[in-house]
Amino acid sequence: QSVLTQPPSVSAAPGQKVTISCSGSSSNTGNNYVSWYRQLPGTAPKLLIYDNTKRPSGIPDRFSGSKSGTSATLAITGLQAGDEADFYCGAWDSSLSVYLFGTGTKVTAL
Amino acid sequence: EVQLVESGGGLVQPGGSLRLSCAASGFTFNNYAMTWVRQAPGKGLEWVSGISGSGYTTEYTDSVKGRFTISRDNSKNMLYLQMNSLRAEDTALYYCAKDGRTQPGYDFDYWGQGTLVTVSS
Question: Would an 8 Å CB–CB cutoff place A88 in contact with chain B?
């Protein structure tokens, strides 16, 4: 089954901005909502963004999501050392009737 | 406060069976779909199966179809995953997650801490 493609790693200095891309197809990211999850080392994933752009209660506005065509992007502004984690996008695939996670991106604060 | 507590993991031989359970609290259980997600050691997230709030709709990833069965008991606020014909590649940390809607496959807003399944002889 297909997966959603993310860059393996991104990095920036503390205080700077990083963006993570998530590339899919018309059957998943192109026509269904995209969500983003953060997984700190040794912990369960946490929902950061849902319905492409919405933040759950308690998620700071440093985290923002966008979508254009079949690609989605997570932006993190004001990068902090505590943001170092693995980030995953996700979306339902209407053709396969499965939920797909992205390949995952490790974010590092230099 | 939403809580999801998984149990039932352990060491099992190839071809064996396990039943995972997830006890849910802090929300109206039958209003939301539920999902199992797994993560093999050092690997990424893999969606395994989802079930609607009513229990009538179930979905599975291809690699577990015919071997795993997801179910729920809304009277007990419990989610289950019956795993049969287990293979080495099923070895993973299995997370129970709450969906944000009644139907599965949108977003997972709460997660348990996971239960480890190891398939090995």
Answer: yes
